[in-house]
Write a sequence for this structure.
C-alpha cells in the first residue's frame, strides 16, 4: 500500500526545510513539485526556478535519478541506490545515496519522494575532523618534546663557548664553532616547534593583499627560477584575520611548492568563493578558497597522508615544519588546509571562513 504523502502537513514542510539532507517530491508525471533548501544548495537552483520541471532539468545526465523514480513509481516500494553519481550543472560530480519512496498526495494522486544524502560531504566532515584532531595531538606532543630539548641544548651551547675560551689551538676551536652553530640551528628549530598558540589578532584583511605580499617575497627569493601566475576572484569580500599569520601560512606553502618544483617551477595562485560550505562540522555562509597549484613532482605517496605532521618531509634538506605550522595557523582562523597531489600537479587548498558558521553538522 502506498504511504500517505508527508507533504500535506505544513508542520512537516517546516521540518523538511530544516533538514541537511536533500528532499525532492515529483508528481505523477515525474515533474518536480517540491525541493527543500538543502536541495536548492546541492543543485544550485532556486525552488521557484526549478519547480514544474522534469528531473533532467536538475542534472547534466539524469538517467540514474530517473531510473530510481521509475522503479519506485512502478514497483510500489522504496528503492535505494548507493553511491550514485550526480553530474551537477554547476558543481562537477557529487556522490550520494538516494532513496525514492512512492506516495500519494492529499488528492490521491501518485507522487515520488526522494531523499538524497551527500556521501562526499560526510567523507569531507570525517576527513576534516581527522585533520583537526591530528594537529591538536601532534602540536601538544611537539611542544612537550621541544621543552625537554631546549634546556640541555642551552647547556650544551654554553659549555662549548666556555671550552672555546680555554683553547689556544685554532684548529680545535673549529670543532667548538661547529658545536655552537649546530646548537643555534637546533635552537631555531625548537623555537619554530614552539610557535606561540596565541589567538589571531584579527583585523579586516584582504586575502589578495596577503597573496600579493607572498608573491613579492617569493619572486625576490627565487628570482627568475620560478613563475607565479594569479587567477583571483574579485568577488571575495574582506575577512577577519591576522594578516601576519596568514602571510606566514601561505608563504610556508608557496615556498614549499617552489622548492619541491625546482628550477623552472610554475605556480598558480587561485581564489574562489564558496557558499554554504562546511569546514569540519561547521557550515559557513561564505568561505574563501585559496589554491596553490604547482607543476612539481608531487608529494611522495608514502607520506601523502602524513604531510601535515611535523618532521615529515619529502626533501632531504627539509625540516618538515613548514606545512605543520601553516596548518596550525590556518586552523586558528577556523579554517583548514587540504592537499591533493599527483606527479606534475599538486594542489594545496586553504579554506578560510569569510562569514561565521551558521549551523553545526
Amino acid at each position: 500500500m502506498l504511504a500517505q504523502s508527508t507533504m500535506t502537513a505544513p508542520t512537516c514542510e517546516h521540518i523538511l526545510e530544516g533538514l541537511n539532507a536533500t528532499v525532492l517530491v515529483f508528481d505523477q508525471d515525474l515533474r518536480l513539485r517540491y525541493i527543500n533548501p538543502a536541495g536548492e544548495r546541492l543543485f544550485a537552483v532556486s525552488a521557484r526556478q526549478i519547480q514544474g520541471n522534469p528531473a533532467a532539468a536538475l542534472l547534466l545526465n539524469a538517467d540514474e535519478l530517473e531510473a530510481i523514480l521509475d522503479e519506485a513509481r512502478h514497483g510500489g516500494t522504496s528503492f535505494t541506490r548507493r553511491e550514485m553519481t550526480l553530474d551537477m550543472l554547476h558543481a562537477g560530480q557529487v556522490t550520494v545515496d538516494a532513496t525514492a519512496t512512492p506516495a500519494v498526495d492529499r488528492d490521491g494522486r501518485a507522487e515520488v519522494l526522494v531523499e538524497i544524502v551527500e556521501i562526499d560531504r560526510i567523507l569531507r566532515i570525517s576527513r576534516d575532523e581527522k585533520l583537526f584532531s591530528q594537529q591538536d595531538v601532534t602540536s601538544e606532543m611537539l611542544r612537550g618534546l621541544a621543552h625537554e630539548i631546549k634546556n640541555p641544548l642551552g647547556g650544551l651551547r654554553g659549555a662549548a663557548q666556555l671550552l672555546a675560551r680555554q683553547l689556544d689551538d685554532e684548529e680545535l676551536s673549529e670543532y667548538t664553532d661547529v658545536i655552537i652553530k649546530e646548537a643555534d640551528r637546533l635552537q631555531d628549530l625548537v623555537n619554530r616547534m614552539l610557535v606561540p598558540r596565541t589567538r589571531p589578532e584579527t583585523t579586516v584583511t584582504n586575502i589578495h593583499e596577503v597573496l600579493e605580499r607572498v608573491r613579492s617575497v617569493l619572486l625576490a627569493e627565487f628570482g627568475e627560477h620560478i613563475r607565479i601566475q594569479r587567477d583571483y576572484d574579485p568577488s571575495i569580500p574582506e575577512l577577519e584575520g591576522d594578516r601576519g599569520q596568514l602571510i606566514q601560512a601561505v608563504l610556508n606553502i608557496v615556498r614549499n611548492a617552489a622548492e619541491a618544483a625546482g628550477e623552472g617551477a610554475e605556480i598558480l595562485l587561485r581564489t574562489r568563493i564558496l557558499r554554504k560550505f562546511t569546514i569540519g562540522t561547521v557550515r559557513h555562509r561564505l568561505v574563501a578558497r585559496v589554491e596553490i597549484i604547482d607543476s612539481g613532482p608531487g608529494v611522495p605517496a608514502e607520506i601523502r597522508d602524513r604531510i601535515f605532521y611535523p618532521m615529515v618531509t619529502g626533501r632531504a634538506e627539509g625540516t618538515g615544519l613548514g606545512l605543520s605550522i601553516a596548518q596550525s595557523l590556518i586552523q586558528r582562523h577556523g579554517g583548514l588546509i587540504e592537499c591533493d597531489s599527483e606527479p606534475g600537479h599538486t594542489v594545496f587548498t586553504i579554506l578560510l571562513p569569510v562569514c561565521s558558521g551558521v549551523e553545526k553538522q
